[in-house]
What does this fold into?
Amino acid sequence: MKFTLSWLHDHLDTTAPLEEICKTLNTIGLEVEGVEEPGAALAAFRTARIVEAVQHPNADRLRVCRVDAGPGFEAVQVVCGAPNARTGLAVIFAPPGTWVPGLDITIKAGAIRGETSGGMLCSLRELGLGEEHDGIAELPADTIPGQSYADFAGLNDAVIEIAVTPNRGDALAVRGIARDLAAAGIGHLRPWLAETVEGTFDSPIGWANLFPEACPWVLGRTIRGLRNGPSPDWLQNRLRAVGLRPISALVDITNFFAYDLGRPLHVFDADRVTGDLLTICRGAGEAFQALDGREIVVSPEDCVIADTAGVQSLAGIMGGDATGVTAETTSVFVECALFDPVRIALSGRRLGLHSDARHRFERGVDQALPVAALEAASRMIIELCGGEASEVVSAGAAPAWQREARLRFARIAGLGGVDVPADEAVAALEGLGFAVRRRDADEVLVDVPSWRNDIAMPMVLDQAPGLDPARARQAEDGARTVDAECDLIEEILRLRGLDSIPPVSLPALSAVPLPALTPRQVRAAAARRVLASRGLMETVGYSFVAQAAAARFGDVPEGLRLLNPIAADLDQMRPTPMVNLLSAIERNAARGYPDLGLFEVGPGFSADGQTQIATALYSGHTPRFPGRTAQAVSLWDAKADAFAVLAALGAPVEGVQVTADAPGHYHPGRSGVIRQGPRVVLGYFGQMHPALLAGRGLDRPVVGFELFLDAIAEPKRRRRAAPDLSPFQPVRRDFAFVVTRDVAADAVLRAARGAERTLISGISLFDVYEGDKVPEGHKSLGVEIVLQPAERSLTDAEIEAVSDKVVVAVSRACGAVLRG
Amino acid sequence: MSDDLETLRQETLAALAAAADRREWDAIRVGTLGKSGRLTALLKELGRMTPDARKLRGAAVNRLRDELSRAIEERGAAIEAEILNARLVAERVDVTLPTPPDRTGMIHPISRTMEEMTAIFGAMGFRVAEGPDIETDWHNFSALNTPDHHPARTDQDTFYLPAEGSGGNRARVLRTQTSGVQIRTMLAETPPIRIIAPGRTYRADHDATHSPMFHQCEGLVIDRGITLAHLKGCLTDFLRAFFGKPDLPVRFRASYFPFTEPSMEVDIGWSRKSGEIGGGGDWLEVLGSGMVHPRVLANCGLDPREWQGFAFGMGIERLTMLRHGIPDLRSFYESDVRWLRHYGTSPLSPALLHEGL
It folds into this structure.
């Protein structure tokens, strides 16, 4: 909402400077978004009069002028080259030190050809105002010297733009803003009264209201015998200043009232209305052309105004082209109505129509203003366009908007944390237009003014479904008790300024705060730290991606496709952050950074809901280094990091199994599923499927993993038994088992471990050999077994016995033979 | 000293001086002091002498033994030192070679800021609450006193998903704020409540200063006797800790949100010219807050006569950009490794209040 300072002064009697007004607006919740001062650069220029102009003794083209430029500059001598500088002329004077915008120079006192010159007489072009430069500017003869030129020419009218919050429909009016400022102590609100315009004939157009739910009350009158034309300068200047284009007097008048009183009006060209009745009714699927030229199709949910020819206006939002006023209009029908804010909001949103009228109606207009506003508008139309007004016609009746609100004074401190004297609180409310109905030491009951549609409104709750009925009822009673009171407290506090409330730190709940995160919540942070410490960069990707891209990584149910995506490639909730990581790898490679590892710990979405997935993707090679060649990333990098995360998160890494059935975005022969028991999948790892990378400029292997953090069971917080630290040295024995190629190493290790439960404390694979030293189709696995004696050193025979058990177990389970 | 002893002495010392390695030295040692060494032989002869002769000869032989033992030992040590020196020379490397490059991983600035917020609010007794990114219409709007037609709702360009439930009657949205978490918390728990809800939020807006997905951290305090003064204290305490400026100017301006009353926006002092936080005479809006609206409390089954409190919400990217002088919002999601390396933080220095943020 924009307005000018002079417009504000129409309603607010104040001497407060602009800066104080802006500061107060910010304090009371009308946030200043910008201030323009077109006259600021002209502050030093003054009106003046040439008392006497005589020929310069030493220059033909120059004149020496004695100038009266008001207090401090009563008799200044100025040398001037303008041909029109003559005795008695009212002029614009720039004293020394003035910066002249049109010339970009600063005036200095000095002498020109031997005559002193203490300033400059200026043309409008020199002030940066237009192109006129036939000598110095000539002001009207009766101009009083010594005024600020910017003030004199009306250029000092600052334009203030404020952000009006959706609850404050009343502040979409200059008068509403003035009222707030007055209540906050910036001057006094000037009285405003609309003088009645007596009707001299019956309106040839009347109202029929078939849709009173949408329009409780509508007024109108005909004004005939008028002449539409450009509106006067003052009105055009004001509209331009607030960003509106002047169109014609009739249109400009309706715009003026929208901004001045927050009161939207509409004028029909009475001669273009068909029939003698304007009907307020539901739309019926018909189309009409709105004033902005758009074709609008109205539905039964839209409130329209129709004549016998059809729909002529989308009520409260935009008029129709067919009955709009033109330069030829000589007779108008003025509409002034109240519309249901909810219907206006929904219609406007459904049809995508924005207008100053809709903006005001959906935020709520002054419920008591229609009669006076229609009179004021009639008067201005007749003043500017001539003509005579009919009697007022109406349909419906003024709605019962009257409400009351109670304030217990103690609650100001109870909610606001600051004591406000009762008198001050009541004065603030009265300043805003609340009328005290009853008051005692503890509380006050006030009537809410007709323009405050945000205070003590009927309470609409939308309580949680399934709430216990008794609890719900008690909560509702409570809200009913305090709802309007909170509204009033907010008004009192904002007018004082919230800065006047002394801050109080929250009282501690416990001397030492409890952890802010649950062990489950710590996991995401722990996973991040593990992966970053292992050399991966954390990324954050959008939760929505292109559907086609997402489909390559999992299911893309329609239920997870946005109905209104912002871009076609951001339409599907991602099944896994890996979708984003692959694009990121690709982008970095295209920028010349192909060797990298990225990870994201973020949500993946499926028909079953949202899960948190720690995902990593690696591409390229390790850096080259003396003595070390570049190594291409391999699935082992991914597996190692995945298991490091699992270990850090307390997953029982010893007990997990790896199976070779990862989903389709992985290489089928080089990927695994990390499982805990038969049902729980902890994650996947492996090389990415070559088909996924084809055509993406990624000619090197890409590997990665996904871990489902929610699937990891919370580690049991048991007190651990003391460790058994045997004094006896462990014994290590190596075995080379030859098995067929399809035997999983994991099966061999499990079998070996199971061979002897008490003595075997560790088992590891140190070699895999395939080649001509083992039979075709076979491989040799080098396995180290660690035996830990507990009570005494093992004898050779005992060690031999355990070794035999291991060999037997592995050959039984895996068909292994010891390599010869 | 008799001649034979002197000869032995001379020869042994000469041989020691000539010994080039450990093997030659050992041969001399054994040849002199070993079982059948020459000096050992002389010692053995002493037994066959008369006591007088033995006394005379014995003293001389023993002196020689002491002298040669010492000489052998010293020469042995010298040879060891030479060997070591030779080895050290041989083992010399070019120490200016760089170490094998480590891949350095970094924590994303969004995660870092969330951790910092958690640390600071955690110290004030808050805990972290979470909720789903896909919310029902009710959790995201209706429960928050923002009915369908509310003008505030058109300001938040909401992403919609196909409705669910019987007959498709449960509208689903991508949460425009994490307030749904507050609603869930109030429904599930009995006050006192102190939570923050950091997380992803979504609005259909995309330009240099808006991203369709961004992160917010909301907070909720519900208790008996919580007033606007506590709101101001809590948020002032937070902002000063977060920006590391104990005197940071903080300003509270009346505003409006459907779910709080009174509502306010919070500004911090900064310099428009230099961008410096805390300096200059300008104000910069950093977050929104207010006392929880009684209708919101009632929607969640809390009696506003008994419970009241405050709520706030701040943009995580916005605060991160301010704190670290990051110019472009979009860069947060581009995963450019150069940017990540520049603005990322080490995983080994997590946000710990006792180490400083």
Q: What stands out?
A: The first strand of chain A starts at residue 2 and ends at 4. The longest helix of chain A spans residues 469-496. The two ends of chain A are 92 Å apart (CA to CA). Residues 39 and 156 of chain A are 4 Å apart (CA to CA).
